[in-house]
Amino acid sequence: MNEKIATRCVFFIAGLATSSWAAMVPFAKMNTGVNDALLGVLLLCLGGGAIISMPLAGLLSSRFGCRKVITCAVIIILLSMPFLILANNPIILGLLLLMFGVGIGLTDCTMNIQAILVEKNENTPLMSGFHGMYSVGGIAGAGLMTSLMSLGFSIFTSTLMVAVLVCVLITLSFRHLLSYANPAEGPAFAIPKGEVLLLGVICFIVFLAEGTVLDWSAVYLVEVRNVADSLGGLGFICFATAMTVGRLGGDAIIKRFGQLRVVVYGAILAFIGFCLIFTSDALPLLLTGYLLIGAGCANIVPVMFSQIGKQKSMPQRVAVPAVTTLGYIGVLAGPALIGFIAHHSSLPHAFVFVAALMVVVLMLSIIMNKNMKIRGDA
Fold first, then answer.
1. Are 191 and 299 in contact (CB under 8 A)?
2. Are residues 171 and 31 both part of a single domain?
3. Which one of 150, 218, 250, 343 is CB 3.0 to 4.6 Å from 232, fit for a cystine?
4. Angle at the Cα of 99 (from 95 to 105), degrees rounded to 5?
């Protein structure tokens, strides 16, 4: 194992842990006896924990190095995962979700700091492949939890098995994680500005689009396009598959076409995908739309994180948490915003709004290219 493989393992762990929790949600709801409204409030604890911890990642990694921060963050995840299933009180579940969110937030930020440094050391595009492993981890987590429970294992036992897998992976990766990070320059926390603000806004929009597909694709297909209930998940499957394949092959694509073209054409593909969704009735065209959104969005965020290592507006140790936090806010706020638009207008109009935001990504990427001179090299 080397630094690249260790970094891929950490991205895989983050995706695995996050998607494993998704499989636990119905059981956590049943154990605590909460209704949908209270469950929604409790789920905010996870996002709140992540957002609280993200600004700390740069400070902690500068002081202790990526290896120690990532390892401690994964330990927090491991300590909280089994108890998420055992919690039978809403307050306890909320505290555990806050703890779990802190682990996820620290891991997400610090693994991107490590990824930027490894990419710089290797002097070749690697970021898309790293983020691709997060997507692979997400698919693996959902698939593993489902398979284990289908074989007759309880949700608690299944969760413990996933936790053991995470423990093995972080143990194997430990020696090859970076013992250093960015120097402690500038403030511990900072509001994004200049080039970092552009990067953060683009990540916010793309994560908002991803959250929209995750939470609303099945509802749209079933309730608006009258697709059978059993086929409602096909939209997200197409999206996730295209995104995963796109990211795993993204480094080679970026080497060949350059980062600017990947972002510009990606935004155009995603825009066309959303247009297909709100203008088509045929299922093949609708699924093609989701495929195009996944393929288009796949490498935009990885390119933005690569650019953090090149920008001069802010120290990297505060720039990474700032951009990551903005992106995470997009994931949290996006589905709620879409629901608000759908309630006051219609769900197709909400998708029109997201399509318009992809045009904003296109425009911002062109502006960013003028300011930062995006290149295909790392």
1. no
2. yes
3. 218
4. 140
Going from the first residue of the chain to its last (378 residues), give the mean pLDDT of each consecutive group of 10, the final group possibly shorter.
Answer: 94 93 86 83 86 90 94 96 93 95 94 93 92 92 88 93 96 94 64 86 94 85 88 88 94 92 95 95 95 96 90 82 88 82 89 96 87 52
**CB-based contacts of 330, cutoff 8 Å, min separation 6:** 203, 204, 205, 206, 207, 208, 211
pTM of the complete model: 0.85
Q: Nearest 5°: phi and psi at 48?
A: -65, -45
As a whole number of Å, the CA-based R_g of the chain is: 20
Cβ contact 281:22 at 8 Å: no
Residue 162 in tokens: 């996933």
What is the torsion angle, in degrees rounded to the nearest 10, for the CA atoms of residue 369, residue 371, residue 372 and residue 374? 10
Domain that holds residue 215: 194-372
Residue 273: closest CA among 251, 252, 297: 297
Q: How far is Cα 333 from Cα 378, in angstroms, rounded to an integer? A: 31
Residue 141 and residue 217 share a domain? no
CATH number reported for the structural domain that contains residue 136 in this entry: 1.20.1250.20
How far apart, in whole angstroms, are the C-alpha atoms of residue 129 and residue 298? Answer: 10
Q: How many Cα atoms occupy the beta-carbon half-sphere of 108 within 13 Å?
A: 28
